[in-house]
Structure formats: structure tokens, C-alpha cells
Design a protein that fits this description.
The complex is a heterodimer of chains A (374) and B (371).
Chain A lengths: L2 H7 L2 H8 L1 H32 L1 H5 L4 E5 L12 E2 H9 L3 E15 L6 E8 L6 E4 L6 E5 H7 L6 E4 L2 E9 L8 E5 L1 H7 L5 E2 L1 E6 L5 H11 L3 E5 H45 L1 H9 L4 H37 L9 H27 L12
Parallel strand pairs in A: 4-9, 6-8
Antiparallel strand pairs in A: 1-11, 1-12, 2-10, 3-4, 3-7, 3-11, 5-8, 6-9, 7-8
Helix pairs in contact in A: 2-11, 3-9, 3-11, 3-12, 9-10, 9-11, 9-12, 11-12
Chain B lengths: L7 H8 L1 H32 L9 E5 L14 H8 L4 E16 L2 E10 L10 E4 L7 E5 H6 L7 E4 L2 E9 L9 E5 H8 L7 E6 L5 H11 L3 E5 H45 L1 H9 L4 H37 L9 H20 L2 H5 L10
Parallel strand pairs in B: 3-8, 5-7
Antiparallel strand pairs in B: 1-9, 1-10, 2-3, 2-9, 4-7, 5-8, 6-7
Helix pairs in contact in B: 1-9, 2-7, 2-9, 2-10, 7-10, 9-10
The chains are: A alpha+beta (374), B alpha+beta (371).
Chain lengths: 374, 371
């Protein structure tokens, strides 16, 4: 039996990994948890992005017009006076321009009752109405998740800034960890915020045959003091709010995930290499080349990291299933680009973690097998 | 043989310094990670109330206002005058505040824009450069935010269709979510198309008037407003902000804690198993089972305590480095966090070290003499 035949026919890497199952399993779990840091955070933010634009997507508007420079809705203030609305309506190609008011507010069940933060929309369509009817003056439509949280149903009375409103219906799919949407009649919200004749945004529908991009350009040219965006462009900008605000945190988590992954994978691989030092000595004495020994280490580390990556994917998939059941506002969305990013982190982890044991194995002499180790 | 005569634990730990260092580094990294993440979570809450913390003890907003940052509140001029006339009010300074979503370098940057009346309360409390806003469209911007985006005194910022000229930079006003910017109230109102209004009144009680009493008086005498203690509003803001970000951050802290447990467990367990021949030798020369367990326990404890101490040093260094490199993030590591982490890592290390107790109990002393 030649050395080459021996090393290629025996599944050494697998046997070495399975020799100490507990440690291998711990290593795989550790790497999985490290990668889960990256995957879970990205999935949480991706889920938030989807929920943020639920209202915008459902408006059916071709173009959304805001105060100049404003291309977002959440945590944003925009004010369009009546003359701006009139000017928008006069732009050729505009079929209708509906003003809506958007304000942050709390919905409360009473002075000392439960409460929830909402993006309160006055006027405009009520997308994804799953129960009841659109709000009339003095009424409010809540997201089902908030209604459940507050313990209110259709017909119940809630308060917004001291104004009592009757719940007339429920929508679905707008609740995120930052809050949900609620809908009232525009006159109701004007009265609540003491601001008649000032809207936040205009939802514009184009005449048949008028392109939305072209209409947005036309409005921007013809009306001063406003910024018109197509609905798709506005939604993209809204989604980027989450991305822009979470960039640093995501970067930090990727770095942390990488460091932990390297630490855990490196620690496990190093411990295993130390424990298998005699095995490597035997293998080298039997003719295993240094290069083959190195590839053995690399295969082990790569297997650990790959298994960790697969486990992390499974865990984040499980979280995406379970978390919304526990909290309807916590939605995880797993995107291919994020999985690929985690895979690249895993690849970097494998390379960095392999360095530690590789340096050790290079120094193992075949003669060491004939020495007592302790 | 008595193990007390020979420093076996120390000798075993120091026999392989490289291995000890790797183990210590792994435990320290895991501990530091948990401390930093939980510190970031706490810092987020403290930053949210940076503005409120420096204001008088009573604030008045529109009826039903229970939150300073995230809720609309509009007070017409007559209400401002009515509150100012309530007995016990020394001063009622109107401000118009609200989120400002700046677009800087093609990125959305959230800030809190506070419009105040020059010469009254509500403006920046410390200037790093320039002066306070005095007339229309003048802006004081948080110094950290300005530095991040290459803005300085004299720069112009286009916001909601208006060119705002930066006349000053404030310090002590940075924050991850809500760095502060200041303008005159007239400027803020013009941006909102709501002239002469205010969102809140910063109310200073007369000497000898308790804030709680003043809150009750204002609510009794002025309809259509909500008077709140500053600390109550701050707590609500903190709950809302930290609550929203708490889920992801808490998940991260928990994952980090799980990693810490795992790292400590792997390190200590591996070390115990790897020394099985040495333990067998010690048994062969007369070391009892209890003494053996104590030996393992001491080693695990030393590893956990030293690793935690190193982790605290690492976390402190990272906090200091973070303050220099990214001053908008506040990391607040408390003594109780450190104590909890120390206890937890000691516990996990002991469990991990003593997990192979049965293995050690059944360890045949004769194995020491086998190849």
C-alpha cells in the first residue's frame, strides 16, 4: 500500500471530525450562531423595509408629490399648502391629485390604557382593508396587529391626541416594529392637528396614456416648492431609510459575526489539531505529505464552516416562521443578496480560522509519533 | 499525595501558554461582545433624551401628547398665552420641534430640528463653533453630524425647499438616531407652513412650586393641552425608541451571550478532556476524586475570571475607540453588566469544566501508563 493510495482512499477528514463529535458539534453551532448574527439582522431590516412601503404600494398613485426635497414618509415632515395642491392639479396629464395628511401619533384606549404608535394618514385610499369600512369623520381604521394589541374591535372607541374616534375597520400588513398605519378622514386629522388647508403629500393619478415618469418630471418643472416622484421611486427611497440608518449597525454586526466565527472555528480547529497531533505524526510517518496534511486541515475547517452556514440558514428560516407568530410586527425577510453576503462572511471565516491550525500542522514532524507526549 | 502542596492547577494552566492565551482571548472576546452590545442598547436609550434632559421640569403639548419625539403636537398662539398666565409659571418658552430627514451625500440622515425663540430657553446649550441662530433660515447643527458630512460654519444645507445656512455647531448634541439641529421657531414654522404655532412649551415653575403641582394646575386651567413632567415624557420616548430597536438589539445580545457560553464551554471542556492523561497520572499517584474536581473547578474558574477581566478591558478599550471613531454612538457599560457577565461566565465555565466529571470519575489511573 503506497502512501498516496492510503491518503486518498481513507476519509481522514470525516473520521477526524467525527472522532470528537461533541467538540465538532459545538464548533458547528458556534459558527452557525455567529453567522446567524449577520443573517438575522439583515432579515429583520429587510422585513422592516417591506412593511414600511405597504401603504405607499397600496395607494395606487402613479406619482407622489411632497414638499421640495422630501422623498420619504416615515419620520419625515412635509407640508404642501393649498396653492401648491391647486398648481399640481393643473399640470397637464394629471387626472386627479388627492391630498393626504401624514402625522405620527399614539392611539390610546383611555387615559391609563394601552397605546401604540401609528403613522396616522388623513384622506386618501385605505389599502388592504380586511374588515369593516373606510373611516368617516370621527372614525379610525387600525391595523389588525395594533387592534389586537390594544384589545379593540370594530365599534370600539379609541383616542388620538385627546380626540375620541370610533374604530370602523381593520387593515393588514402595515405593522412593523417601528409602528403601524392608521387611517382617518382628512377633515378629522385637520381638526386634530389644528392645521386646515395644509396637506403632507399629494397622491396623483395620471390620465390614461400619460407615463408616470414623464408626469413626475412635468410636475417638478411646472410647480415650484415640490418634489414629485413615481410611486416606485418613492417606495425605493422609503426603503432606503432603513438601509441608510442601519448601515453602521449592520456593518458592526458583520464584523462581530466574522470575529466570532473566526474565534469559534479557529478555536475548535486548533483544539482538534492539537488533540490530533499524534494522528498527524502517524499520518506523516506513513507518508502523508505536508501539502496533503494542510489540505486535510482546510477540508475540516471548510466542513465546519459550511455546516455552520447551513445550520444558520436553517435557523434564520425557522426564526422567519416562528417570530411573526409570536409578534406580528416582527417580520423577517430572507433575501438572496443577504444570504450571499453571509456566505462570503463564512468563506472569510473559514480562511482566517484555518490559518491557526495550518501553521501548527506544518510544524508536525513524522518522528513525533515515536515520542511520548506526556 | 496532597494537591495543595504542588501548584498543579497553575502549572497545568501555564504548561501551554499559547493554548491558554487562545482560550483567554476567546472568552474575553465573547464577554466583550456581550458588554458592548448591551452597552449600545442602553446608550441608545440615553441618547434619545439628550434634548429633554436639559429642559425645565414641565412640558406642555397638545391635548393627548404623551411623547416628545414621535407624536405630532400643534399649539396655537392663544394656548401659549393661556399657559403663560397660569399662576406658578415662571416662564413658558415655546418651541417647534420635529424630525428632520436630511438628505446628505445621497443618504437619509435623521435629526431632530428644534426651533426656538432667540434669547429664550430651548436652544443649544453648548457651542463648539460659530453662534446661535438669530434670523430666518439660520441653522446650528450638531458638530459630530456636521463633521461626518463635511459641513462647517458657513455651509448651506438644502432642506424642504429652503437653503439653511449653518451659523454654528453645537456639542453634546449627537446621537445615533436623533442628533440635534436648531433654528429659530419662525424658520421651523415656515417649513411646516404653520406660522405662529408651537409644538411644546418648556415651562419653568416659580420658586417653591413643585412640578407635579404645576402640571395639575395647567391641566385644570387650560383646555386643549397636556402638561407632563419632563421625566415622564423622556421615559415614554425611551420606551418607544429603545422598544422599537430593542427587539433586534436584544436578539443580538442574546445571540452574543449564546456565543459567549459556547466559547467558554468549548474552551473549558476541551481543556479538561485534553488533560485527561495528566489527570489520570494525578489519580495514579493518589489524588482523590473530590480533589480532582476541585482542581478542574479552579482551572475553569481562573479561566472564566481572567477571561472576563480581559473582556472588560477589551470592552473599555473598544468603547473608548468607538467614542473617537464614531462619536454618534454611545456605549454605556455599567458595573452591574460587568458583575452579571462575571457571574455568568464563572457559572458556565464551572458547568463546562465539571461536565466531564463523570468521565473524570471513571478515569482509569492506569491510562496514564498507556501510550
Amino acid at each position: 500500500m503506497t502512501a498516496l493510495q492510503f491518503s486518498s482512499s481513507v476519509p481522514l477528514a470525516r473520521r477526524q471530525l467525527l472522532a470528537r463529535r461533541g467538540r465538532t458539534l459545538a464548533g458547528v453551532i458556534g459558527i452557525a450562531v455567529a453567522l446567524l448574527l449577520v443573517l438575522a439582522l439583515k432579515a429583520i431590516f429587510a422585513g422592516m423595509e417591506g412593511r414600511l412601503t405597504a401603504f405607499i404600494d397600496g395607494t395606487g398613485a402613479d406619482v407622489i408629490v411632497a414638499q421640495e426635497g422630501v422623498t420619504t414618509m416615515h419620520m419625515t415632515q412635509s407640508a404642501l399648502a393649498a396653492d401648491a395642491m391647486a398648481a399640481i392639479a393643473r399640470v397637464p396629464g394629471v387626472a386627479s391629485a388627492q391630498g393626504i395628511i401624514y402625522k405620527g401619533a399614539f392611539v390610546e384606549t383611555g387615559p391609563n390604557g394601552r397605546s401604540g404608535i401609528v403613522g396616522l394618514v388623513g384622506g386618501g385610499p385605505v389599502p388592504d382593508l380586511v374588515e369593516g369600512r373606510p373611516p368617516r369623520p370621527g372614525e379610525i381604521v387600525l391595523d389588525r396587529a395594533l387592534a389586537n394589541q390594544l384589545g379593540v374591535d370594530e365599534g370600539a372607541v379609541v383616542q388620538v391626541l385627546g380626540t375620541r374616534l370610533r374604530v370602523s375597520g381593520q387593515v393588514e400588513g402595515t405593522a412593523a416594529i417601528t409602528g403601524s398605519f392608521a387611517f382617518v378622514a382628512r377633515a378629522t386629522l385637520e381638526q386634530i392637528v389644528n392645521a386646515p388647508n395644509v396637506v403632507s403629500y399629494a397622491l396623483v393619478r395620471a390620465r390614461p396614456g400619460t407615463d408616470a415618469d414623464e408626469l413626475a418630471i412635468r410636475i417638478n418643472q411646472d410647480v415650484t416648492g415640490v418634489t414629485a416622484s413615481t410611486r416606485a421611486s418613492f417606495a425605493r427611497s422609503e426603503r432606503s431609510v432603513v438601509g441608510d440608518m442601519s448601515t453602521d449597525i449592520v456593518r458592526a454586526m458583520i464584523l462581530i459575526g466574522f470575529v466570532i466565527g473566526v474565534a469559534v472555528a479557529g478555536l475548535v480547529a486548533y483544539s482538534q489539531t492539537l488533540a490530533q497531533q499524534r494522528d498527524y505524526g502517524v499520518l506523516r510517518a506513513l507518508g502523508l505529505s505536508a501539502r496533503r496534511a494542510l489540505s486535510l486541515v482546510l477540508v475540516q475547517v471548510a466542513t465546519l464552516v459550511l455546516a455552520g452556514f447551513v445550520l444558520a440558514l436553517g435557523l434564520v428560516g425557522l426564526l422567519a416562521l416562528v417570530l411573526p407568530m409570536l409578534s406580528p410586527t416582527l417580520v423577517l425577510s430572507i433575501r438572496m443578496e443577504d444570504v450571499l453576503q453571509a456566505a462570503s462572511v463564512a468563506g472569510a471565516v473559514a480562511l482566517a480560522a484555518a490559518l491557526i491550525p495550518v501553521l501548527h500542522v506544518v510544524r508536525v514532524e513524522p518522528a513525533s509519533v515515536f515520542r511520548r507526549t506526556s | 499525595m496532597r494537591s495543595g502542596g504542588v501548584p498543579v492547577a497553575r502549572r497545568q494552566l501555564l504548561a501551554e501558554p499559547a493554548k491558554l492565551l487562545v482560550a483567554l482571548a476567546a472568552v474575553a472576546a465573547a464577554v466583550a461582545l456581550v458588554l458592548l452590545l448591551s452597552g449600545l442598547r442602553r446608550g441608545l436609550g440615553e441618547q434619545v433624551t439628550t434634548y429633554l434632559d436639559r429642559q425645565p421640569p414641565v412640558l406642555v403639548g397638545q391635548a393627548g401628547a404623551r411623547d416628545f419625539l414621535s407624536q405630532v403636537s400643534v399649539l396655537p398662539p392663544d394656548m401659549v398665552a393661556q399657559v403663560a398666565r397660569v399662576p406658578g409659571v415662571a416662564d413658558a418658552a415655546p418651541i417647534t420641534e420635529g424630525y428632520a430627514m436630511f438628505s446628505l451625500h445621497d443618504k437619509r440622515v435623521l435629526a431632530l430640528l428644534v426651533g426656538y425663540d432667540p434669547g429664550r430657553r430651548g436652544g443649544p446649550w453648548q457651542l463648539a463653533a460659530g453662534r446661535r441662530p438669530a434670523s430666518a433660515n439660520e441653522l446650528v447643527l450638531d458638530r459630530v453630524l456636521a463633521d461626518e458630512h463635511g459641513l462647517s460654519v458657513g455651509s448651506t444645507l438644502r432642506f424642504r425647499g429652503t437653503n439653511l445656512r449653518i451659523v454654528g455647531l453645537s456639542s453634546g448634541t449627537s446621537g445615533f438616531m436623533t442628533p440635534l439641529a436648531f433654528s429659530t421657531r419662525a424658520t421651523a414654522n415656515a417649513l411646516n407652513e404653520l406660522p405662529d404655532t408651537a409644538t411644546f412649551l418648556l415651562v419653568t415653575p416659580e420658586r417653591g412650586i413643585a412640578p407635579e403641582e404645576l402640571v395639575r394646575r395647567i391641566e385644570r386651567r387650560v383646555s386643549g393641552v397636556s402638561a407632563s413632567l419632563r421625566d415622564r415624557l423622556a421615559a415614554n420616548d425611551r420606551d418607544l425608541f429603545v422598544g422599537a430597536w430593542s427587539g433586534p438589539l436584544l436578539a443580538m445580545v442574546l445571540i452574543a451571550a449564546a456565543v459567549a457560553v459556547l466559547v467558554i464551554a468549548i474552551t473549558v471542556y476541551s481543556a479538561t478532556r485534553d488533560r485527561s492523561r495528566e489527570y489520570a497520572t494525578l489519580k495514579a499517584i493518589g489524588l482523590g476524586h473530590t480533589a480532582l474536581l476541585r482542581l478542574v473547578g479552579v482551572q475553569a474558574g481562573v479561566l472564566a475570571v481572567s477571561g472576563t477581566a480581559l473582556g472588560v478591558v477589551l470592552a473599555a478599550a473598544a468603547t473608548r475607540g468607538g467614542t473617537e471613531l464614531a462619536p454618534k454612538y454611545l456605549i454605556v457599560v455599567t458595573a452591574s453588566d460587568i458583575a452579571w457577565m462575571g457571574v455568568a461566565s464563572l457559572l458556565f465555565a464551572l458547568v463546562a469544566g465539571l461536565a466531564p466529571a463523570r468521565y473524570l470519575a471513571n478515569l482509569d489511573p492506569a491510562t496514564a501508563f498507556r501510550r
